[in-house]
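$ run holo --ligand "pyridoxal-5'-phosphate" --emit tokens
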Amino acid sequence: MSRFLDARFAGLTPYVPGEQPRGFDYIKLNTNELPYPPAPAVAAAAEMEARRLQLYSDPESRELKETLAEVYGLSPQEVFVSNGSDEILSFAFMAFCGEGRGAAFPDITYGFYRVYGELYGVDCDIRPLREDFSIDPSDYFGNDRMVVIANPNAPTGMCLSLADIREILRHNPDVPVLIDEAYVDFGGESALALLPEYDNLLVVRTFSKSRALAGGRLGFCFGSEGLIRDLETIKFSTNPYNLDRMTQAAGIAALRDGEYFEKTVGAVIKTREETAENLRKLGARVLPSRANFLFVSLPGIPGAQVLAALRARGILVRHFSAPRISDFVRITVGTPEQMDKLCAALADIINSEE
Ligand SMILES: Cc1ncc(COP(=O)(O)O)c(C=O)c1O
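-- output --
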């Protein structure tokens, strides 16, 4: 730390992203990327734009917003796009949680909520998950803070039903309710259907998972025109050109290939179910996931040990040392071949413990 850093940031604990290895050819199951490449038209669309990089990108992202609006049946004024959904979360914490308002979210959830809370000096009400790792919707009723729920939740993969989300909204008419649907395409129920009824609902999505564009950094969200305008105000007050030309074009091309999207997401769901079954046969505890990852614990082997043993066998997964979940590892669903190798490695790890 230099002597110039503002005192309010001195104690900040930044988010630690999953490892992006260089050199060694790992089976990479640690950051919930799609194991398949982007839709075939994406590369050419991005390359076309690469030839025009002397020009700024469209700060209003009009074509991208229009395409999203068309695909999801909304108006472009109800759509916001950003440099990854992380940036949308950051903007929302900045815009809606200050001045004695705050945010409420579960203790076990996406780690960045806590970091944004700290960064912006937000008063965070952190609610424990139930014993079975599910979210109790009534924990969030009658809030005077922004409610933030990842659905499916991370790193558990577990879901709230649309009826539960509706109840949370019904009991919180006067604060923003942000539903982070980073993983919803893999089998969750989207809150999008509730948008016409609730002007305080913000549905946050990403191209990083189901659309195979993690490296492009493209997030989007849906909400009432007022909420979207608020986010635009923050964006135009920080970095109007937050989306480069190539990423905008890549996003449009990915959206236009609905068939490829359905095919790849369907393949991941099928592989997830097969892998969960195989892991249970090995004696593992596997939480019921509707995401593109599985949260898994092996009987009698701490999560940190599983992480290290898999790494030694060339497989990267993710481990969190927080209480209650330190026995688990989070495993991204890869190709069937990768999952076969994972299951063989886990069987080997279990055998070598016995
Ligand atoms: C629940 C959740 N929300 C948001 C994000 C951020 O995704 P991105 O910034 O790549 O859009 C992630 C990434 O892992 C996530 O797990």
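-- notes --
The CA atoms of residues 28 and 316 lie 5 Å apart.
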